[in-house]
Amino acid sequence: MIPADRPHIRAGLGAAAAGLIVVSAAACSGSAPTSRDSGGTHSNAASHTGSATAGRSTPAPPTPARPPGEFTISFAGDVHFAERVGARLAADPATVFAQAAPGLAKADLTMVNLETAVTTGGEQQNKSFTFRAPPKAFTALRDAGIDIATMANNHGADFGASGLADTLAAIRSTGFPVVGIGANAAQAYAPWTATVNGTRIAILAASQVQDETLANFSAGPSAPGVANAYSPRLISAVQAAKARGYVVIVYVHWGTEYDTCPNPDQRTLAGQLADAGATAVIGTHAHVLQGAGWRPDGVYVEYGLGNYLWWRSFGNNQDDNGVLTLTFRNGKVVSNAFAPSHLDTRGVPMPATGAQRAGIAAQWNGDRQCAGLAAQPPP
Fold it and tell me: In angstroms, rounded to a whole number, what is the distance separating the alpha carbons of residues 154 and 132?
């Protein structure tokens, strides 16, 4: 069913000639197509079945015509549904993101890091923090205007093998697009693909956080798990997508917690991904903002987006975050816009205003210095 506010959307695999965005869906962890009002259709890969759904209930204004090849993608950081946020999920999935939702639905596509197992059971792993949420977590993401999530992180398998099986089943049954996790390596490293305003894009994800998840639940040839950023499969997958003509975006879970500067592993991997053909590399995990900007080769890197929808407040800038929107044109990132936000007592990332907005923006701009990135694309 096509929502009334999105007459330009056509759902399903046969929609390649219609609208700004058409999903081809390249066999990730598996579910049915979804859509939202960005000008086309988006779907997850594996099942190739299902009907369109939408996050908005009120009509959106017409989108001005853009030159072919231009589109926008918004990115936010870590999301999960424990404690105060879990209570909001239980009360009403459609309102969990509250005042943050309108800012998430503006771009052609929006992506976050879903940092939790999606299960009501499983075996709690021997870790300091473990997170799980029911399948309605995907409803909350969709209702907030989010199109795709990565689960390649250090909490996607927090409840063991059976929790991982439940997670994959929830992805299939809800039809929400997820990358970076799968029933085997082929699925975990597979991109989610779409055509946006005439440009074919591929989004991949992997985790570089070396903890129990990578040790015990890295996806293998016949083993379920998350995509491991240290595996050569990640670089090969980027190269393959680039060779097929896609604009490639990679979302990586990486970095040193609470450090606003990228560590050597982050810098090395960013360079490897750029050399392999990535146009943009987005990251999270450190719980604070890290630097963002352009490399000399024109590849855009955002090292860390912080805690976006979060269970607790820890102070020391850990409540500062925001939504990064990149504008792509002719296969390159040509501009960026960062909308600062700050966690309130509900765990909701409220759009920042006044001095708070200026302070968070100053953090974001200041972090660029130690990241060695430029504020503008190279000429």
Answer: 12
Q: What beta strand segments (E) does 53-98 contain?
A: 70-79
Residues 6+ apart with CB under 8 A from 223: 184, 185
Q: Check: CB of residue 369 under 8 Å from CB of residue 260.
A: no
Low-confidence ranges of the chain (pLDDT < 50): 1-20, 24-60
User: Of 65, 30, 69, nearest to 224 (Cα)?
Assistant: 30
What confidence tens digit (pLDDT) does each residue in 79-100 have? 999 999 999 999 999 999 999 9
How many whole angstroms separate alpha carbon 186 and alpha carbon 217?
A: 14
Report d(CA 179, CA 189) in Å as an integer. Answer: 8
Query: Structure tokens of 332?
Result: 């390159």
62 token code pair? 């017409």
Q: Cα angle at 205 between 27 and 50, to 5 degrees?
A: 35
- The neighbouring-strand residues paired with 320 are 342
For residues 287-326, one letter each, b for 16 or more C-beta atoms within 10 angstroms of the residue's C-beta and e for the rest, the string is: bbbbbbbbbeebbbbbbbbbbbbbbeeeeebbbbbbbbbb
Tokens representing residue 63 in the block: 């989108």
Cα(318)–Cα(323) distance, integer angstroms: 15
Which pLDDT score, from 0 to 100, does residue 23 have? 52
Phi, psi of 189 (to 5 degrees): -95, 0
Q: Which CATH number fits domain 21-33+66-296+313-371: 2.40.10, 1.10.10, 3.60.21, 3.30.420?
A: 3.60.21
SS3 (DSSP) at 1: coil
Q: What is the CA radius of gyration of the chain?
A: 19
377 near 334, Cβ under 8 Å? yes
